[in-house]
Task: structure prediction
Amino acid sequence: MRNAALVLGLIGGCLALIVGFFTFGYTEFIREYGEVEGLATALDREGLVRTASFVSPLLAIAGAAMSKSRALWGGILMLISAGLMAYTFGIGAFTLFPIGFVGLAGLLAIAAGKPDEPKAHF
Result:
């Protein structure tokens, strides 16, 4: 389960990175050139979109990397990443797979059978 969480988290994080590049570039285009009638309109939550474009892939990839040794923490990071992507970008054609892969990886990491270590997680 930890290996599956690692692989799915990395794949989902890389796909989220592509979505993040596009959305950050879109907001930068709007800042530089303004709205273009019929092509590009301003976003209501530009700051949230720009922040989530950077933070979501970062959390997904970091959580995937942690899922082998610290499955609980890695799973929580991946679930936060999937939730942030779903809240910010919505579920659409380009965000469906990153959200699904990272969310499933987070669930698999948390559901991993053996405990991380005999000590407490915090």
Q: What stands out?
A: The chain has a mean pLDDT of 90. The two ends are 22 Å apart (CA to CA). The chain has four helices and no strands.
